[in-house]
Amino acid sequence: MEQEWKQAALQLSDIAISANPNNEPVTISGIPAEMRCVGVGTDAAVFQSLAAPDVVFKVYAKEKQAKVETEKAVYEQLGKSRYFPVFHAAADNYIVISYEEGITLFDCLLQGVYVPEQAIQDVEDAREFVRGRGLNPRDIHLKNILLQNGRAKIIDVSEYVLPGNDFRWEHLKRAYEEYYHLFESRPVPYWLLETIRKWYNQWNKATDTYDEFMKNVYRYTTFRK
What we know:
The protein is an alpha+beta fold. It is built from 7 helices and 10 strands. It folds into 2 domains: 2-98, 2-Layer Sandwich (Phosphorylase Kinase, domain 1), CATH 3.30.200; 103-199, Transferase(Phosphotransferase), domain 1. The termini are far apart.
């Protein structure tokens, strides 16, 4: 397998990735025909090669390449765990990790796929595991949690060396506990999820509480019973 992905990695030089302001997803150009993009974030994009489908390449934007060494170090400190992909290697602008089946919790909401309580508990357990490895589990959100046969797997560990709690997971967990029953297994419009994401990124936590934020969100939903 290693020889296959090393050969496939040669095609990554054709791909250009640039970061965007305001925490928006990266811009991508030049994807080879033999590869497909399986994920897009604010710092990097993830690609799978038809020649080496068991792994993916997380390729960082030029402005974010310093994060490669950081993420490599985090994976090495975490070691093997059912909560995260398997780390294989790192290069100047990308890391190689195992390809993981499943859809993100963001896509679960879009498609009306039920998210069981077990998946939420898995994230809680993963956070405890991370703390036990001397790292800080943060930046955990809907787009970096996969649902695999009713269980959760976290696919981005790049911020686990940063200090402080961003409370993203705490807010998601509370929203699941208090509001998910209103629309579980019913598709949520993309425009609504994107609007909430942008509001959240702009939310001034110094002046508005979580309850005030969710009250504003609730006014715009169509899922009230």
